[in-house]
Amino acid sequence: MNDHGCLIIGATGGIGRSLAARLAARGCRLYIHGRDSKRLETAASELRRAGASQVYTLEQELSGRDDIHELISKIKPHREMIDGLVISYGPIRESSLSRENLEDSSFILDMNVLLPLGLIQFLGPVMASNGFGRIVVMGGTASDHNRAYRKIPVYGAAKYALNSIVRSASAEFAASGVTVNAVLPGYVKTEYYSKKSLDTLKKSGKLLEPEKISDIIEYLMSFRSSAVNGSIINAGAGLEW
User: Which stretches does DSSP call E strand in 104-177?
Assistant: First the structure.
């Protein structure tokens, strides 16, 4: 895989960082995005030592639509060299529908729908013209079908919409060697949970290690996964949510 370049959005922690380490060990060329310069450079150094052929860093805050455009502008010089895209970023906010305000709702929708949509629109056609590409997005836990949410209604709606984008993109690029899939993780052990939350999840038996999810994504990024396209893959270990 050392001839391949993969862009990972959200590469400095959790699933994104776990996947980046795996791809580095395979000698891939990596384009890693993060929002904190120190963490980004630390991750880049580790990935170079792990075997990545090249590592490019893309520092960009993601708090609104202008940031999405800015990120895409930073990716543009590398566009022709990227044949893999993994979006391991999608903020969540707990609030009932009646208490949520429009500004916060817009942020959740922008980051969970417009960000992946924009990146797929930007990189997908180039991958298709080159005859190969792999795109994987992170869906929401158990968001494989439309359901009611009391605490995360906007996030749930965004992730359900993302599933539709994945299936539409997979159909558009199906004959071009590009696959587009969504992985729906369960509760994954990352630094974004508080210690209290992690302890509670661990006791419940629902807490997964990031490597369990990067196992799946690594396969989806490979040549061997060409028949898997437009799939919405539940990765919650079969637990009830």
Answer: 133-138
Phi/psi for 3 (5° steps) reads -90, 0
Q: Which tens digits make up the pLDDT trace of 199-234?
A: 776 767 678 889 999 999 999 999 999 999 999 999
Q: Within a 13 Å sphere around the CA of 119, how many CA atoms are in the beta-carbon half?
A: 33
CA–CA separation, 231 vs 144, rounded Å?
10
Contact 117, 166 (CB under 8 A): no
Compute φ and ψ for 215, nearest 5 degrees: -55, -50
Residue found by looking up tokens 């959790």 in the block: 14
- Cβ(213)–Cβ(18) under 8 Å? yes
pTM for the full predicted model: 0.93
Count Cβ atoms within 10 A of the Cβ of residue 81 and give its class: 0-12 exposed, 13-18 middle, 19 or more buried: middle
The CATH class that applies to domain 5-234 reads alpha beta
Alpha helices in the chain (DSSP H): 14-25, 37-50, 65-75, 102-109, 115-130, 153-173, 195-204, 210-220
